[in-house]
Amino acid sequence: MRCFIVLSAGLSAALVSAVVALGSAGAQAQAFPSKPIKIVQGFGAGGQADTLARILGQGLSEEIGQTVIVEGRTGAGGNIASESVVKSPPDGYTLILQTNGHAVSAALNKTLPYDPLRDFKWLSLTTGFVFLVGTSPDSRIKSLKQLIETARSEPGKLSFSSVGVGTTQHLIGELLQSTAGVKMLHIPYRGGGAPVSDVIAGRVDILFDTFTVARAQVQGGKLRALAVTSSARIPQLPEVPAAAETVPGFEVTSWMAVAGPAGLSAETVDKLHRALVKGSVRPEIRKRLAELGGTPTLSTPEEVTQHVAAQIDKWKRVVDQANIPRQ
Predict the structure, then answer these.
(1) C-alpha 322, offset from chain centre
(2) What is the pLDDT of residues 148-207, one digit of tens each?
(3) What is the pLDDT of residue 61?
(4) Backbone torsions φ then ψ of 57, nearest 5 degrees
(5) At 117, is the secondary structure helix, strand, or coil?
(6) Going by DSSP bridges, is the β-strand pair 224-228/120-135 parallel, antiparallel, or unpaired?
């Protein structure tokens, strides 16, 4: 049976436009995605988050059939990027790559312009990266066990670098101190290559940084790797022990996850989640991640939500134990 809409001469142009717009909106919703998707990341161009966003974006693009654009919105430790995505339309076309820094920021800040958990629709964990504990090849410290013994016998004398107060690297140092019951001196930098350079030169004793940042110096013999912070050894450095072998239970990984604004529909969440998972396990994507020291770490939306909540709680405890002032 055919259905006809008879338009009277008095029907307003506005009503006609509304009817047409309603039909167009329905068509667009059924056709998601019908235009490029943007992944926002909150750190500098060429850094780990930017690089990973582009690798994951490639896999997502190939799976979902649309161009994926990576946009950097730097500042405030990723908070500017997070706020911009929270305020974006919940249509699936604006996503964000979050890192462990998101949980650290939530732990360190008294207030944020968004809820770090509930204002996002979490899609999936994507990648795990380990951190490395290192020192100069000329250092008297030859192992993590010796580092802890030295720090106990000389409290406050051993120094460790980070890329800034309140960064994950800083809090790894604080977590190791509280877990092992030792005291060291924190030397914060403003990012860049200075932390690695000063540890290599012996001006600072200990380095805490990602494997991605430190791998070239370790492989080139310029930096001695004492431990990795994963629960087990990694294939890229099989001879380097996991920190948990010396400090039971110690584990820190730099997780990364993709999320969108909280209002994403269930259908959009499902389509994006499936595409992210399939894209992340493509052989060429896995290969590029492995070269950076990363491994696919996939999850359901429910699992990643629980993971982020647990990480926020974990770093809040570290901040409290270290007596770090909240901002």
Answers:
(1) 23
(2) 999 999 999 999 998 888 788 899 999 999 999 999 999 998 767 788 999 999 999 999
(3) 96
(4) -60, -35
(5) coil
(6) antiparallel
pTM of the model: 0.79
- Residue 220: both structure tokens together: 């080139």
Number of helical H runs and strand E runs in the chain = 11, 10
Alpha-carbon Rg for the chain in angstroms = 23
Pair 47, 81: CB distance under 8 Å: no
Q: Does the pLDDT of residue 27 top 60, yes or no? A: no
Domains delineated in the chain: 37-129+254-322 (3.40.190.150), 130-245 (3.40.190.10)
pLDDT at 141: 97
Alpha-carbon separation of residue 314 from 172, 294, 324 (angstroms): 11, 22, 14
Q: Tens digits of per-residue pLDDT, 62-81?
A: 999 999 999 999 888 789 99
Residue in this structure with the two tokens 């192992």, named with its chain if needed: 143
Burial 291-325 (b: 16+ CB within 10 A, else e): ebbbbbbbbebeebbebbbebbebbbebbeeeebe
User: Taking the CA of residue 107 as centre, how many other CA atoms within 13 Å lie in the half-sphere pointing to its CB?
Assistant: 27
Cis peptide before 33 (omega within 30 of 0): yes
User: Any idea which residue has 């896995």 for tokens?
Assistant: 286
